[in-house]
Records
---
Amino acid sequence: MSGVVTVNTNPYEGQKPGTSGLRKKVKVFLQENYTENFVQSILDANKDAIVGSTLVVGGDGRYLVKEVVDKIIKISAGNGVAKLMVGQNGILSTPAVSHLIRKYKTIGGIILTASHNPGGINNDFGIKFNCANGGPAPDGTTNRIYDISTTIKQYKIVPDIACDITKVGVQKFKVEDREFVVEIIDPVQDYVDYMKEIFDFPKIKSLLQGSDQRPPFKILIDSMNGVTGPYVRRVFITELGASEGSVTRTTPLEDFGGAHPDPNLTYAADLVNAVKNGDYDFGAAFDGDGDRNMIIGRDAFFVTPSDSLAVLANHLHHIPYFRGGVRGLARSMPTAAAVDRVAQAMGLEMFQVPTGWKYFGNLMDAGRLSLCGEESFGTGSDHVREKDGLWAALAWLSVLAVAGKSVRELLEQHWRQFGRNYFTRYDYEECPSDPCNEMMSELERRMTSPGFVGSTHKSGDKTYTVEVADNFSYMDPVDRSVAMKQGLRIVFTDGSRVVYRLSGTGSSGATVRLYIDSYEAKDVLGDAQVMLKPLVDLALELAQLRKYTGRDAPTVIT
């Protein structure tokens, strides 16, 4: 029998969860009681439901995951949790956690991830709480967690519990007069079973293996040494019969092999180069925790996340899961409006929400949303309440199997039908915070001053007239909650836009994101950076971005 110990502690400043949990450097989490404080704050924020409850626990395999899983087990035992479902070796992808919460009707889950941020002792770690619907905690819950963290005085723990998370099976512990159960689960099985319900695996397998009418469709799937490795191997090699050469970097590593596990053209350059120089029809990369995706075609033809969302929306009827009907479509505000035109053509509700997947959850739970996406390489449906990278790749392969076209042909067909939203994003990572905050304040002051709406701005051979200038706000149509100050937005009379945001997903400094979006009905085959250059130059000048960031060029261009 084990006893509960109450440990006195003091609060730490800055334990405020961002759009996807609390992210800091590993060495911050290594401070005495720092992690324990935050875990206790999560449990206290849910204290009415915690006693006798079940929680899902897992993470992306980065440095510190196993140690923090051990602390969560001991603190959960001390707070009356009845059962934990823990991924073997602490491994669970973020969409897999969402699925497990929903399938087994737990009160929520704790995910140990800093998503697409680098790992290792000198890099990032994170803790995120997902609610009973499987989605990220809403603002009310994260605010409650933060408030508790500012005044916390003690946490409860059962220090002598020794739970082996390396072996699948059920372990039971006697904690005072209660039984405490930890079930170590195969992290992959439930998720893969679900994917086989959603998609027509035999049809995808036929695409990959080829037939008398069609040569084998050659793929390269890059897990970037993140959490999706075991899922990718089970799906593509075991279930779909792909060759070993079809997958790469499938072993989760604590430092992601020194790579930055962010699936974009900069950080997934290994995949881009391999597809460009090899005989591949399709490439996909996923981030650290498995919720983001990048899709490329033969010769590394890049599909923007905005276009990916729109193309999938237009072909959802090819996926068995959606044959019962599609309810609505949605995108984050900075995402290009390509999917809006598909929604209009299909007669579906279309929603524009702030950045952060939690804003899609209410719409899904209300039965008003089937497919959604963010330009930050996130795509997903109402099958879970998180974006889902592997799901997106399977969705693309499902569409390609039916269409009989290449990735490029499918995109060009889409553009001819709907026109093209040229889109790019400039990221300025880990900039000094104070100048960036000053830049945003000064830009908002200028945007909202009399005369800015209606003003004209010349750049290159183009002239732009401002139609809308605001700091985006959103009222949830389901619960009427309001999210303010979600990004500075300038919309011009020709429909083009520039959007400025300070990201909430970094662990240090400020990340400035600049989004550029311009629609062309007919001229759809141009180079995005060439087509958008006048608007990019104008956006940089309006914000004086080089001056405030001290950078001549962005860290990443998407």
---
Amino acid sequence: MFFKEVEENTELLELRKDSLSAERLLPSVPTQKTFDYILVGHKGHDDLDPKSQRQSDFIQQLKKKNISVTTIIHDDKVFYGLRAPKETFEDYQYLLKVSDSCNWRGDVRGEIPQATRIRIVYFILHHTRLDSGEDLNDLLKDNVFETLFCLHERKKQKELRKKWARWSAAFTPQPVMDIQSYFGEKVALYYLWLGWYTTLLAPAAALGVVVFLYGLAFFNSSPLINEVCQSNITMCPRCDNRCKAWELSDTCSYAKVSLLFDNEGTVAFAMFMAIWATLFLELWKRHRARHVSKWNVYDWCEEEEELIMDIVNDKNCTPRQFTHSYYRSTLVLILVTVMLMVIIGIAHALVVFRVVAAPLISECKWEFLEAYANPVAVMLGAVLHYVTIQIMTRVNRWVSLKLCSIEKLNTTAAKERSFTVKMFTFQFFTLFSSLFYVAFFLGRINGHPGNYVRLAGFRLEECHPSGCLTDLFIQMAVIMLLKQTLNNIFEFTVPWLKNCVRKNAAKKLERKCGYCYRKACRDEQGRIEPCDICKVRDWLRNYHLGNTDSFSLFNEFLEMVIQFSFTTIFVAAFPLAPLLALFNNILEIRLDAIKMVDLERRMVPRKTNDIGVWTKVLEAIGVLAVIANGLVIGVTSDFIPRLVYRYHYGPCATGASHTDCMEGYIDDTLATANVTHKHQEGFNVTSCRYRDYRSEDYSLTSQFWLVLAMRFGFVILFEHVVVICKFVAAWFVPNTPLKVKNERLRDKLDRLKKELSEIKRAKSTDV
């Protein structure tokens, strides 16, 4: 048995050596540089098979455009290797040269870059139609063709793996120029933006940690915590039926957590993050300008690029006219509104879950769950919210695509912008509807003893006497941790598992190919003639990789922009959000790089000079962050009530200097309820307390109106001050560096002089 295993292993080793040596000897084996695209279809039973006939018709249409096609049949699949003629790219270069954007020099450097070839051939493939009017997308939907993909360039792929797609490069600068030449400007700008965002998260994360440590420093000495932990206050039941009155001191731990994230440092941090968001965008515009100027796409125009592609594909093409339909726009607006109402309705369902879960948990026999019923309900609600997000993400994508098809936009760029805005809007409402409820409605519309507001027969939730901000913190922490952690696991694990399957298939093919080299591929003189297996080996290596499409990069952008929203909009409730985002992004860059270089098919290189509509989305988030953080501090936080108490109702306001200014604050925020009321039957106490500013007859006190006025006054002042700071910061930082502007002026001048000299030279030649 032992000798048999040794013999088998020796034979496999010889086969591999023969395979490698034969690969070096092959003079004309097609490599990834030979073909621009690979189209894969199923092998038909005969020529009369309808799918086989449609395959042949499509290939004939490509041949009419002078695209060379190499057909290889392997097992039950047909592989078509496609290569466009040199004239196609010469036309593209010339049209770029005479266009208004005039970025042709970026492509004229001797040989046509493979990224440019792939982009043009991709456009031709998707704009080639059969006589029946069907295009490639229709054929893919009908399973006439299985898939199509471009090939990785082994040499450049290895270089990117060495410089970028490995964990040891986590703290080294990204090779943006190499990424741009291989994956195109669109992918390069995404990683450039993500790297810039991650870099600027470092000061925000550091300050967030300082704010957290500030709360931790006064953790044990705070009179508010001592007042909760050492109190003998009896609180009113949280529900009507079996809930009992509870002691405020039972929630000592909850009060400590509340003060960690609800302190004076939170206000300064929220203002900093609002200004940080503006500076981040303004500095990003400068950073982007430097790189797109190097890539010579600063003046690039999407619309003009698409027109050039149309001419390259079909010399007799006609421009697609701009159209606008008020009927379609109205229909889309109505459907978007309906979809948003559905999403908000789901958020209401989550609220109902929390309202129902809290009293049910409080009835539990376990003492721990009974004491922390509300926090446990909030945590369960956050987990359920995450599950809802995963389901609604797929629904939102389907609805957004349908709405874009109703609009019938004329260009691919316009469709992408429309889809991005709709998808982000739906995702934003899906993720933040529940958070907005927790931030601005929880504990403020629940009523009072004798007149509680009810939902589905249950009383609405109440805030803890130490504040409402902890509920928002718990909700955000659970969603951010779950979303970022699980998303990274699934995004990387699925392509990794597929890669394992690919490697097994590649090993089997390599063994077969090695046998082929040794015996079947040699002629009478012993020379090697490559067989179809040898040619298709590299195609199969790419075929078994994870699929990529136009959504691949969009999904990455959407994930990061949603994270940016979490980091800025409710940062007042969760100062550690920038730190979590920083750690996540350091991992995200490497995970995405490894996935894109090694585990997935090569993404189609796309030309662009900006991150597109995402810039407008980020600007809108920055404005919303100012409003939301002002409301969180002014309305959700207890910052304003504490200030009012300190300077108007507390011991220091009355001249008692021997005590802490905040002593007695918790007791001041609690109203007293008479337990003999009909809704309070079964109590074994004579009175209980609840959080509100009300007198014994449940009427609002003057302190309530003073606090309310101060809350809204602070919100208005905060927003105006921060907005002014944002405008000053945006004005102070120019979008384009002076060096880039001057270089562009010199380049334009040189180009114009060169054009003039060429014209004069041509005239002198004619004479």
